């Protein structure tokens, strides 16, 4: 990018990388702010807010922008904050709509690709520094302007927390554009690994494959949880529509409410994962929703809550099989893509094959289960939070118990999948051989 260009063909002075980074960051700020402001303006135009002042609308938009970046809002009165009208008490609003957090992440991903395209390997930090400084400054300025007597915002959090989603998006985008970490940061991982011992490379390959298999298990479990959530929404669709009709929010108000619920859709998928694992989740202090039963108190009139299974569930225990199935897929994936160097080492030390095969498979299940459990616990910690009002100060799954349950069930599935993998591979090879024979016969005919 150049500072100016004229019609003579001279391209002008190249824009400094730190300035280009600042420009890309400012673009992301403006676009994400507009996406947040537009639905609120629609509600404001239709008299959806009690306070009709424009400055109140601007502060509300700024608070929403900070919330989708993970900045908690401290509520200090009955009518403060987002969605707390008519509620009393004080609290912390920290429930992050992860679906809306994808907006700054994707904008940062675009900025990271553009900055990587414009930078040499040893100069990318200049562009990143300029982008992060501008984004941090905008977060601090937004928090300073949008603070009121009813809502207080920690300036340090406003400066630092938005950099997590934005910085992660830029790094991933830049890595996608560069194609490798060595081209991105100038460090050749292959050359570094070549200088280590063979045993270290084997151990690193084994542990890396186990960690990747844990990620595969988590993705499979989340996909199955999303499918289960979809089925549940379809089954309870009439209950959800009844809540919409009872609210009488109108077309625009219903659309904004739907957008807000879609923003929390990733949170609901994580809640469903915790529910299917047996750990369950809470929708308020003292409440619990799990596959064997649900016990919650009065809930706000949010349409998606109409899909919450109530009472004792006769078939709820079947949901516990979802993380196990994800573990089976991860065990099969490891058999196809990983290298079980621990099994090879153990076979050299101990000649009893029945023992080494069983022991190495159990250890593999423990490692992959622990990896999936840690990742699911981290997701549960990110997805949970507080609405800051009444009993709704505890919403979401418990990270520790989610990690324990998912790790145990995925580990069991890994043992099954890795043990049954050779049989599945043999069946697949037989099918491929039959298909090749049929094609060969057809060609001869």
TrEMBL record:
<feature type="transmembrane region" description="Helical">
    <location>
        <begin position="124"/>
        <end position="145"/>
    </location>
</feature>
<feature type="transmembrane region" description="Helical">
    <location>
        <begin position="251"/>
        <end position="276"/>
    </location>
</feature>
<keyword id="KW-1133">Transmembrane helix</keyword>
<feature type="transmembrane region" description="Helical">
    <location>
        <begin position="95"/>
        <end position="112"/>
    </location>
</feature>
<feature type="transmembrane region" description="Helical">
    <location>
        <begin position="57"/>
        <end position="75"/>
    </location>
</feature>
<feature type="transmembrane region" description="Helical">
    <location>
        <begin position="205"/>
        <end position="231"/>
    </location>
</feature>
<dbReference type="InterPro" id="IPR045931">
    <property type="entry name" value="DUF6350"/>
</dbReference>
<feature type="transmembrane region" description="Helical">
    <location>
        <begin position="403"/>
        <end position="421"/>
    </location>
</feature>
<feature type="transmembrane region" description="Helical">
    <location>
        <begin position="25"/>
        <end position="45"/>
    </location>
</feature>
<keyword id="KW-0812">Transmembrane</keyword>
<protein>
    <recommendedName>
        <fullName>Integral membrane protein</fullName>
    </recommendedName>
</protein>
<feature type="transmembrane region" description="Helical">
    <location>
        <begin position="315"/>
        <end position="335"/>
    </location>
</feature>
<dbReference type="Pfam" id="PF19877">
    <property type="entry name" value="DUF6350"/>
</dbReference>
<feature type="transmembrane region" description="Helical">
    <location>
        <begin position="355"/>
        <end position="383"/>
    </location>
</feature>
<keyword id="KW-0472">Membrane</keyword>
<feature type="transmembrane region" description="Helical">
    <location>
        <begin position="151"/>
        <end position="174"/>
    </location>
</feature>
